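REQUEST
  id: r-88c1
  op: predict_structure
  target: Death domain-containing protein
  payload:
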Amino acid sequence: MWGVKNYKNKKRMLFSDLAVVEVDDKHDVAVQVIGNRVVVSLIHSDKKEHIVPTIATSVQECLTAAIHRISEFYSTLSADSFATDERSDLHIVMPFEIEFGVHCKKASCFFPHDKIPTAAKWQCSEHKVHHDVSCLKLWFSEKMPREKCATSCQGLGRLEVEQSPTNKHLRRLASSLEDNDCRELLISLGLDTKVLNNLQKKFSPSAFHENDYKYTAMLRWKGIVTGSSFKTIADAFGEIDKHLLCEVIRDVNVDDVLTTFSIAEDQANKTPTNTTLQELSNHIGNSGIQLAVELGLQSAEIEGIQNDHSCKLLHQNKEILRVWSQTKFPKPTIKELIKALQRIGKKDCLREISF
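RESPONSE
  id: r-88c1
  status: 200
  body:
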């Protein structure tokens, strides 16, 4: 899959309990045995903020597929060893479990893969320490780009289907559904019709985008259920095409946009200037919430901006772009901004601004 990395072009980075493989010239994967765990870390040569999300996701999918194949192999061996056993209800226990971890004091704190925190901060139960877990979302942020699902596509991956959808995922799903389809889906998921009616009235003024109501309703559902997951949503889809969930996670390709506006790759990886953001804020209109979600702002941040600049869309848009441009992780770049604008149907704004 990936070759073992060479240190200073001389020695291979392969040891008794550690191996480092090279994904590309900037990304490495370190595999280390610690106790009864095999710990896999994705490393960027500069800093973690520069990790490319699609690379993180593709690495995760490759490793997950390998783990499942190994587990199936061991399960087959276990089943064969009990072939003469008269018990027909034998339960085969998989030899591997997938966990995610963050550095905590001198060790690391781990939790099951389907319990990955959706908030930027998470408090471990053992040490009562608050950790920044925003980087963990890289493992699930985007699939590698593809135009359409092939006829053989089975939908989301093994880990993805068990994950709780992020706010970005919910926004994208809401925007891809017609009002009636979204309403029926949320009712099937258990959201009260009174809540839906109240939200629809609240977001009816022209100051709000047509998708704000649907997104907020999705967010409300996620907040009241004990275990939201892509599987829960897929099971409630009914006649709705389940491949919409693939589109929700799929990355968008903006190479043609960069070419159209003569933006070089090195420039696309830079943070946009204040002048660019000021110019852009004049062309966002009532899509501020949609853009804020796509840029990764937290719900509390968005609500705070709305409260501080009530009924002033331009001020809200300026503040949204300012807050995003000052985030540390992931790195705010022109390319990510263009992706967000394309996601919300505001790509034409690029004609009115300069980089």
